[in-house]
């Protein structure tokens, strides 16, 4: 008898200005990218994080953390509310194509805290220097690799983590008159390679939604 595919619900934070779309969070973009790359078709549930009881969501995910997944075909359903654990679950449960990277250099790039540098830049223009340092470091590492992505010419999990962050930096940074310098040619090559992938562009938050969420 063929194995019955388990139900998979992905709960994402709804955008503040449109409850029918996902908030422009890198972790959400990352998880939806992985689903498309693996040909997974989950049920997407938009959760209004400002509701006091958040509906029945808290019955399954008591922490209230988003994004989260709820899966299984019968009660008790299981839930995961940690983004890294969600990624690990998806890659192990749906092994094809394999996206896990064993490249130490790719994993080291993934561990860099670009998001922290970006947040500091939004709060204080003096934070631009730190963000530029991080992007310059990334440009050097990409030059050393000479490949389209962080672990070869096909996309892997470290790319799914980093590319949504770069998109966020590129769009929201403009409000603070910050742009990724053109001289970081390998960073731009990397972004352009991502823009050729439907798995990346299909789940890319609109620019106006990013600006409203991150810059207001």
UniProtKB/TrEMBL annotation:
InterPro entries: Glutathione-S-Trfase_C-like, Glutathione-S-Trfase_C_sf, Glutathione_S-Trfase_N, Thioredoxin-like_sf. Residues 72-216 form the GST C-terminal domain. GO terms for molecular function: chloride channel activity. GO terms for cellular component: cytoplasm; membrane. Pfam families: GST_N_2 (PF13409). This is Glutathione S-transferase DHAR1, mitochondrial-like. It comes from Actinia tenebrosa (Australian red waratah sea anemone).
């Amino acid at each position: 008898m063929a194995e019955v595919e388990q139900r998979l619900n992905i709960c994402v934070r709804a955008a503040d200005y449109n409850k029918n779309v996902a908030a422009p969070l890198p972790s959400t973009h990352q998880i939806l990218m992985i689903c498309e790359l693996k040909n997974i078709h989950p049920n997407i549930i938009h959760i209004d994080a400002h509701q006091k009881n958040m509906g029945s969501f808290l019955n399954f995910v008591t922490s209230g953390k988003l994004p989260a997944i709820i899966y299984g075909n019968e009660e008790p359903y299981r839930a995961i509310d940690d983004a890294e654990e969600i990624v690990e679950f998806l890659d192990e449960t749906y092994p094809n194509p394999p996206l896990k990277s064993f490249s130490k250099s790719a994993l080291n790039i993934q561990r860099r805290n670009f998001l922290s540098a970006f947040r500091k830049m939004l709060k204080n223009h003096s934070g631009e220097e730190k963000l530029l340092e991080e992007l310059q470091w990334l440009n050097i590492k990409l030059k050393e690799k000479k490949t389209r992505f962080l672990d070869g010419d096909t996309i892997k999990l470290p790319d799914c983590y980093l590319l949504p962050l770069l998109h966020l930096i590129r769009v929201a940074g403009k409000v603070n008159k910050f742009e990724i310098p053109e001289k970081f040619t390998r960073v731009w090559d990397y972004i352009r390679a991502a823009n050729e992938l439907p798995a990346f562009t299909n789940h890319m938050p609109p620019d106006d939604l990013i600006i409203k969420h991150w810059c207001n």
